[in-house]
Structures are given as structure tokens and as C-alpha cells.
């Protein structure tokens, strides 16, 4: 029932995209009808350069995400476990986190030009905070009684991290990873678009400057589908990883 | 008193330490891209004069506020509409999921086609990027309003606009604020990018000008200004949120104490 | 005052049909305190929600003072079992009680008077400025009762209001409801699964069958009007009545056919 309604909604959306320019409500030059975007998409898919651009974008995204997740989790655990470190870093984290990663674009351009490292710098900076903050929240949520119990049974720091902190924090960490995955994609495409690092974003910029409007829309649709895959994939991974968990927690509104 | 001192110490110690480390490490630096912090700070007042604040920072902030405000109002209004009707939600869900998934910066070239390169373009870019997190979180929030509260409202004749104001929007407000917070960081990103693409004023424009002219200390001050702006906006957001969601944090804390 | 005639409620969803209430008739006189008691899982809440206009009956009708109930009628107030989810956590206690009065369009002075009076009646005069979640469960349910009182309903519907509070608080709240009823002369329809509570509180106890629900027996409680936890509950007549109701409910659970008893007559001594 819901699937049918959803499909109807999607069909209506596509039909609207076809009808609005055909009826002359907006200029076709600015907003090509769905069918022309579809044709352009077909051309893209047959073009080898498109696939290498897609590969570049995915490389930047995945590499950046992995680095950010590893760094975020490690930093989160260290900051939480070492006494006083949480309190001492709180103000610094609160100051650094809201700094928009795009502020680093000029620096990235000067340091790394249009290379992969420029993309990575932006992606890692943006995604890192998502993981770090959720990890901190997760560890803060650890039941003090459970931790005390573990201590009284003589579990060492490592064992406590492994058996008490980690299982409690995992749902939060997964939320952080999910948020980081979509932020990482946004920043990867942004870096390509603005800096010109090779990838889908750069291809969109090229299509724009060469007035290839249908191609530009087709590429935007591809980024949207990519984003959709990332969202759905991250949610699936999250559900799988937490299937054993007694309560799949909602994300903290931070 | 001692506890207060300890708190102040913990808040200030690391930032001071980091700044000192930056100062010492960069002092006497001859690398072009990493000028000494001393130089950056000396350049700062020369670059960010009152005139520049008026000519570049103010337009940026105004465009951000206009776009963000539009997105907030449109997102909450549409989200409430969609979230209140099961059928409408089912029809819209796939399309919304797709639209949300489009990385907002790619909208810049599209919107430039329609709106040129003026203020309108930048405001539309910011609004059309920020609207999705607000919209989707509002849908979730409205959908999750407690059925017992809805029954209560019906029993006591709380219907129509009053129901919306006192029940639906208040009940959904924690999720709405989560969406607004995501939207704020997106908004700043889009503000900068739209100015880097095509502009004649704004913080993003200024930073890129410095970078292209290899005025490296100037560029660094621009990065600092953006950082400060992000921090300030997040502080203001937090203050507003704390006021509006006071009850929610209290409720969560009390639920935590007695599970 | 309140007439339920041939009420029937069938839930339908994804190929399943559940008949919760079947052909149920019931009359409540003005100023009566009637307790509905039945085995757990019977359609008590469904019945009460139909009476309150929150659910639409599949067949039959509910009349309040001769007028057919199609939505929540203005002269009726509802106290829910889930006090924590029925009070608005973003409003302070006073504002929670006041909100329905604002909707009624009462003037500010009159509203303040009613709020103060209602909170006073439930013993929470000092709590107006607190948030509901700062109070204990029993106190939250008192707030919900105060909200109902301030609304000045002619009929008060209570759906297992004390099922989620501890035993001592429960006894206090039972006495509170009984006291308010005697003082204010409202009509109260009180749903519970607790037999002792039904007999202690009610002037009349309506025993419901297992689902699909019908009225199994109606029973007049011939205990003195002035009751207290200490003496009433050990009175021999109380024991007889509760034993009788208990047997009826056990029979209802087994699905034994109801003895046809004339309604409103106490069982023989």
C-alpha cells in the first residue's frame, strides 16, 4: 500500500518534471524535461570518463570516512577514559566543531592543489566531529554501576573499554558513522565542485561552464542517487550491527 | 571557590596551550603557507576593519539569515503538513528521500541558471539546501507526537490552531531543533560556497581573493573569521535551544534518574 | 444522563477483524459513580473511548443527556491511565490545568480561580509552578484529575487511572476520587481491572465479560456512602461483594454463560 503510494508520488514527480518545461512554465534551457535528462544520463553511463569520475568521488568519500571514523572513535575513547581530559577538551571541541570545513578550502588549494589530499582534508575535518561527538555521548551514557562492577572485579582499562564502554557506546557510534557518511559525501562533492579535484563535482562544474544543462542535471541526479545509497546503506549497516542490542537508541539531539 | 577555579582552568587550559603551541611552532616560520601566528594576528585588524565588516561580513550574514529563516519556516510548515497526514507522507517519502540525498552544493550551478549571481541566488541556494533536514525532522517529529496526548487534546477541546501550537509543534520541537541544527552548519557551508562561486562581496569571496592574490596572512585571518562566525552562531543557537527545549532536557534527565 | 445502546466496535486492519465490544447497553444516572470491571484484555478501554467520543462505534450509539455523542462532547472530561503521556511536559502544572479552560474561552480571572480551586482540591496548591515530570507518578495523576475538575465536566470518565501507581498512593487517590465525587456531585464512570477498587469506589459495579465485551452483571454496592480504607475493606459486606464480583470475573474468563440477573440489585446476603 505504502509502496504503491510512494511509487505514485515518484511517478508524479517525474511527470511534473516533464510537464513544467514542456508547458513553457520555465525555460527548457534552464530546466530540461525529465526525458531529456534521462537521455543525458544514458549518454553519461556509456562514457568511460563518467565512471572514472564516479570512482574518484567514491575514493575520496570512502577514504575520508574511514580516516574520520578511526580518528573520531580513537579520540573519543581516549578523551573519555583519561581522567580530566573530557573536561579539559570540552571547550576546545565546542569551539572547533562549528568551524565550517569549507573555510579550509583556500588552504587546501594552496597546500595540495586539485589532488585527492584536498578532498580528504575537507572530508575528514567535517566527518571527524560527527563521530567524535557521538562517541563521547555514547561513553557518557555508560551506566556507572556497570563500570563500578567491572572495576570491582578487577577488570583492567582495556577490558573495561572492550566489555563495558564499547557495547554501550556502539549505538551512538553507529549514529555518528551514519551522519558522517552523508556529510562526507557532501564535502567530497563540494571539494570537487569548488576546487576542481577530479570527480562528479568537477564534472558538474565542467557541464555548467560548457552550458551542457541536461548533462548537468543528469550528474546531479547521480549525486542524489549516490547520497540515497549512502543513507540507505548506512541505515542498514546500523540496523545489522545493532540487531543484538537491547534497545536501538535514537540519536542524541546535539 | 576551588571548584570554580578548577572549572575555569579546565575550560581555558587547552585552548591557551594550543594557541601557545601554534605561536611557538609558527614563530620564525619561513614557509609561505604557514605564516607565523604573530603575523596573522598583526594583519587581522588591518584586514577586518569596520568598513570591511560592513561591506563583506554583514551581507554574508544577512544572506545566511534570510536563507536559513526561509528554510526554517518552509521546512516546519511543509513538514507539519506532510507529517500530519499518513497518505501524504507515503506519497512524498521516496521523493523527499531523494531530494534530501542530493548534496546541496551541487544546487549552486542549477540555481545560478535561474537566479543569476546576485543576492537572490545565494539566498535561494542557502534556503534550498537547509530546508531538507528541517523538513524531514519535522515530519518525524510530528508523526511521533504521543497518541495519548492527541486523545487528551481532543477530549479537552484543544483543536485547530491551538492543537498545532500547544501540542503538535511543541511535541515535535526536539526533532525540529535537531533539524535546525544540522541546517545551520549546512547553511554556513552554502553561504561560503555560493560566494566562492560568483560574488562581489562576502566572507567567502574575500577569502578566495586573498588566496588568489597569495595574500596568505590575509587568507588565514579570513579562515579565523569564518571559524569565529561558526562558533558564534552555534552559541546563539544553543542559547535559543536551551530556552525553548528547557522542558525536554529536564524530562530526559528525570527519565534517566528513574528508568 | 448517559445511555449506551447496543454499542458494537469492530477493529479492522490488514485482513484481521477483531470484535472488541458486542452489543453492549448501559445506563448511568446523573450523579452516579459507576465502576466498570472486567477481566484484563476485555474491551474496557475501547468501551470508554467510544463513550468519550474518541472512537467511533461500528454500531449502536451513545447518548449524553439525550444527545448523540459523535466526537468528544464539551461536558465530558477524561482521565487516562498513562498520566505521564497525558500531561504536556512542556507546560507547567498550572498551565496544563489552564489550557483547556483557555480553549473554552473563559476569562482570565475565572480561569485562575478554577485552576487554583482544582489544584487545592487535589492537594497540590503549591505545585502550580512545577513541570509535571518533576512530580511523582501519584502527583502527576492528581494533576490530571485537577485538569479534569477545572474543566467542570458533568461526566468524568476515568480509564484505569491508578493502575500505574504504588499501592499506598493508590489508596490515597481512591479516597480523593470518592471525596471529590461526594463533594461535587459529578457523574463518574470509572474503569478498572481491580475488583477491590471497583467495590470500594462504586455505587454500582458493572461486570463485563471477556472480549467481545458485553455486560455480564450489574450490581448495586450497598455499602454506606461514607467509606474509609481501614473499616470498609474489612467489613463483611465488602468481602461478600468482592467475592461475588471475583466469581463473576473468573466465570467470565472461562467464558461461562452469564446468569441472567436483574440489574441493580445487590446479591443476597
TrEMBL record, chain B:
Principal cellular location given in the protein's record: membrane
Topology within the bilayer: Multi-pass membrane protein
Keyword Transmembrane helix attributed: yes
Signal sequence extent: none
GO BP terms, alphabetized: cellular response to sulfur starvation; transmembrane transport
Family annotation (PANTHER family): ALKANE SULFONATE ABC TRANSPORTER-RELATED, MEMBRANE SUBUNIT, TAURINE TRANSPORT SYSTEM PERMEASE PROTEIN TAUC
Protein name: Nitrate ABC transporter permease
